Amino acid sequence: MLKLTLLLSVAALAAPDSVRPLLVGETIPSAEITTLDGKKTDMAEELKGSHTILVFYRGGWCPYCNRQLAALGGLKGRLKKLGWEMAAISPDRPELLLETKGKHSIDYALYSDSPCNAARAMGLAFTVEENKYRKMKNYGVDLALASGLTHRQLPIPAVYLVSPNGEVLFQYANPNYKIRLNPKVLLSAAQAYGP
């Protein structure tokens, strides 16, 4: 039984390890995302013209993501003084993003990437294996309900610092969803790469 449990644990972790995140020096790709009011827009166009901290997160159902979003909100004033805008993208439907925004008093841009087009374009998307998907659903996390689609895809959590022309200046992506970028490191990177 222990062998089976270990095998299932390793298999569940294998999928996120297969991603290939966009790297420093590369350009943010064009990908359709949706605003909170349901308007379709292009990720690269939305980021153009300003220094932006771009965050990809799994969804409002994820406690690690919610802590990260709240921590980013606490840094917003300091980051703004350094010349940075902030935006976060998740597979959640716009209606759920509105709930997350209200629940956590988020005052920066949130975008929906329900089909995971942006996450795939950034090299962050992976498909949750069927056994892991069922396990999540048993714990009350319904990815299909959250995204409105049945693709079972999620992004690995990631943070990018993006120049006004779309160049990646700094990147942090970790397949282990429990490990997030330390806010102090983000502040240091924002100071180093800011305008």
Explain what you see.
There is one protein chain. The protein contains eight helices and nine strands. A hairpin with a 5-residue loop joins strand 8 and strand 9 (168-173). Strands 5-4-3-8-9 form a five-stranded mixed beta sheet. Strands 1-2 form a two-stranded antiparallel ribbon. The chain has a single domain, classed as Glutaredoxin (3-Layer(aba) Sandwich), CATH 3.40.30. The chain has 195 residues and is of the alpha/beta class. The protein has helices spanning 2-14, 43-47, 63-81, 94-103, 117-121, 130-138, 143-147, 183-193; strands at residues 32-34, 40-42, 51-56, 84-90, 109-112, 125-127, 153-155, 158-162, 168-173. Helix 3 (63-81) packs parallel to helix 8.
Quickly list its features.
single chain; about 200 residues; alpha/beta; Glutaredoxin; 9 strands; disordered N terminus
List the helices and strands and how they pair.
Elements: H1 2-14, E1 32-34, E2 40-42, H2 43-47, E3 51-56, H3 63-81, E4 84-90, H4 94-103, E5 109-112, H5 117-121, E6 125-127, H6 130-138, H7 143-147, E7 153-155, E8 158-162, E9 168-173, H8 183-193
Parallel strand pairs: 3-4, 4-5
Antiparallel strand pairs: 1-2, 3-8, 6-7, 8-9
Helix pairs in contact: 3-8
